[in-house]
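Listing S7. Sequence submitted for prediction.
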Amino acid sequence: MARTMQRLGLHWWSMNNSEAAYVSAEHRLDLAMGEADVAFRAGGELTGDTLVCLALPDIAWAVYGSAAYARRSGLPESIDGLTGHSIIAYAGPITGMPHIKSFMSMVPGCEKVGTSNNVPNMAGMIRAGVGLGLLPCLVGDLQTDLIRCFMPPAGLTTPWWIVTSREANNLRRVRDFMVFSADQLRPLRGALGGKLDPPQTRAMIEGL
């Protein structure tokens, strides 16, 4: 996900002969305090009345495993097939997100073999064969060494926005970048929603 956002930003700024800095952070930057001009935000709800936002396609999440795990334990073909499998659970603030709560309620019969407090670490643990885990489709599908077990279950989606502060929105370059980003990302609705096969998603993202 971060790589896609970085490529999108660099593409736009290069087209406009401008310089930009890309920041990836686990915490939310304070746009009102000028920590960034623009942010991509997913999950939960936008709060407060100081943000200007454009809605982007929802992000679907799916269950992924590694080839090593598949050789050892097989892979489930549905959410019901997860019973008896080893699951890596999320820990920390991310567990408060509705889709994470929903997923954990679907897998009471699974053995929890580890925890991760963020998506990149989760991808690494899945890749290492620790167990199966939940990832955004745009993250998991881009990893050639991860296997999506089945289509994203209903209810495991998060809303996504591009946001800025009211002050930054007065800058034409910020408004233009937000519109450009939304226009570029909306055609990726199928990839973001997990409706495409992973190879199709990779080809689509490479074409950005």
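Caption to Listing S7: primary sequence and predicted structure tokens for the chain studied. The CA atoms of residues 154 and 160 lie 17 Å apart. The chain has a mean pLDDT of 86.
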